Amino acid sequence: MRFEPLLLLAVLAAPLAAQTTLLAEDFSSLQVPPAGWTEENNGNSVGWELEPAGSGVLWTSDHAFHDDFFGWNDNALVTPALDFSAVSAVSASCQQGVTYASWRDHHYVDVSLDGGNTFIHVADDLALDGISTLVTDLSAYAGINGVKVAWRYTGDYASEWELDDILISSTGPTGPFLSVTNLVAGYVATIRVQFATPGGLVRSGYSLAGGGPVSTPAGALLLSPPYFELPVLVADASGSTGMTAPVPPAAAGAQVWLHAFDLGSATFSNGVAATIQ
C-alpha cells in the first residue's frame, strides 16, 4: 500500500519542540573515556575501548566498544556531572550496536546523584543483535544539578556492546520515537514506536529509495517515493507499540528508510535510515 495518506493526516501536526543539547559525544576525539568522562572498571578486563571506523557493527564511525571478555565484568562509561536544574524534561539517546544478544547479562543506563559513588538503574536495554537507537527518559531527574549518566555493561563472557552519537537533551521524549532492531538478512526485524499517544493509532512506512524529504504542512516526511505503508499499530497504555517483519535473505547490504506518524497527537516520529546487515 502506498504511503501518501500519511501526508493528508499530517496537515494538523504541530512542529516538534526545539531541543537544548546538554551533552553530545561522538567519540571523534579518539578517546574512551572522552575528556571529562570517567570509567568504572572492576578490573577483570580493559572494559570500554575505542573501536575505530570500519570495525564492529557501528562500522561507519569511531565509537565506544565493550567486548565479551571472560571473567565477571561490571564496567560503566560515565558522563561528567550535568546540570539539569533549569529544565523540566530530559532524555538521553545514542546509537547502539549489539552482538551476541542472547548471551547478554545487562546493558544498563544508570544515573548517579552523588558524584558517582552510587548509581540507580534507570533502564535495562533488551535490543536484539544489530544497530538500533537507545533512548532513555531521564525526566525524573529534571531540576537537579550534578547528575551523572552511565552506560553500564555487566556479564561474564556476555554480549558485545557498541555506543555512538550520545545526546542528552532537555526536551525529553515529547513525541513518537521510532527504532528498528535486528535488521539482518534472513532474520526477523523488530520495529518499535515509543512515546506515542497511549491507546492511539500509529501509522508507519518505509522506502528503499531514500529518506526524502517530502514537504508537508507538518514538516518533512523522511521517505522518498515510492514509499509503502506497514500495518497500523495500536499503542499500549505507556504509548509503546511495535511489530516484527521478516527480512529477505537476499537483502543484505540494502538501505531502508522508515518513518512513523502518531494519529493521536498528529505528530511525525524521528526518521530511521539503516543498512540491512
Write the layout of secondary structure elements.
Layout: H1 5-9, E1 21-25, E2 38-40, E3 48-51, E4 63-66, E5 72-78, E6 82-83, E7 91-99, E8 106-112, E9 120-124, E10 130-137, E11 145-156, E12 160-169, E13 177-181, E14 188-194, E15 201-207, E16 214-216, E17 219-221, E18 227-229, E19 233-234, E20 241-246, E21 255-262, E22 267-268, E23 272-275
Antiparallel strand pairs: 1-12, 2-5, 3-4, 4-12, 5-11, 6-11, 7-10, 7-12, 8-9, 8-11, 13-14, 14-20, 15-18, 15-19, 15-21, 16-17, 21-22, 21-23
Instruction: Give the CA-based shape.
Output: globular
Element order: H for helix, E for strand: HEEEEEEEEEEEEEEEEEEEEEEE
Cα gyration radius (Å): 19 Å
| pLDDT < 50 runs, ≥5 residues | 1-18
CATH classification, class level of the largest domain:
Mainly Beta
**Secondary structure tally, helices:** 1
Helix content: under 10%
Please count the beta strands (DSSP E, at least 2 residues each).
23
Instruction: Tell me the fraction of residues in β-strands, as a range.
Output: over 45%
Based on secondary structure, the structural category is mainly beta
Intertermini distance: 25 Å
CATH domain fold name of the largest domain: Jelly Rolls
CATH architecture of the largest domain: Sandwich
Number of domains: 2
Largest sheet: 6 strands, antiparallel
Mean pLDDT: 86
